[in-house]
């Protein structure tokens, strides 16, 4: 495949992806969220992990800590 064919293929795929995004319900909302998570995943994942850890610690008590430590001992 030469450079011209490669660029044409890329443009065609970009048009297909743009069409899919326009056909989605709430395209502006989903594209904004996907771009935000793509550039800044830690802003979402770290607080989520902290919240889930607190939730599981509250539900399961010290057995949750033992379970997590057991996972890392097994590796």
Provide a descriptive summary of the structure in words:
With 75 residues, the chain is mainly α. The chain folds into two domains: 40 residues; 35 residues. It is built from four helices and no strands.
What is the secondary structure topology, with strand pairs?
Elements: H1 3-23, H2 27-39, H3 42-60, H4 62-74
Helix pairs in contact: 3-4
Offer a few descriptive terms.
75 residues; mainly alpha; 2 domains; 88% helix
Provide a quick synopsis of the model.
The chain is mainly alpha-helical and 75 residues long. The chain contains four helices and no strands.
Quaternary assembly:
single chain
The number of E-state strands comes to 0
What proportion strand?
A: under 5%
Secondary-structure-based class equals mainly alpha
Question: What count of domains describes the coordinates?
Answer: 2
Helix content, binned percent: over 70%
Low-confidence stretches: none
The averaged pLDDT comes out at 84
Order of secondary-structure elements: HHHH
Radius of gyration: 22 Å
Give the terminus-to-terminus CA distance.
44 Å
Number of helices: 4
Largest sheet: none
Shape: elongated
């Amino acid at each position: 495949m030469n450079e011209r064919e490669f660029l044409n293929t890329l443009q065609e795929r970009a048009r297909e992806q743009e069409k899919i995004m326009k056909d989605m319900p709430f395209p502006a909302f989903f594209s904004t969220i996907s771009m935000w998570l793509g550039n800044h995943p830690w802003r979402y994942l770290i607080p989520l992990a902290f919240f889930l850890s607190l939730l599981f610690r509250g539900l399961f008590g010290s057995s949750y800590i033992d379970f997590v430590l057991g996972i890392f001992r097994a590796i």
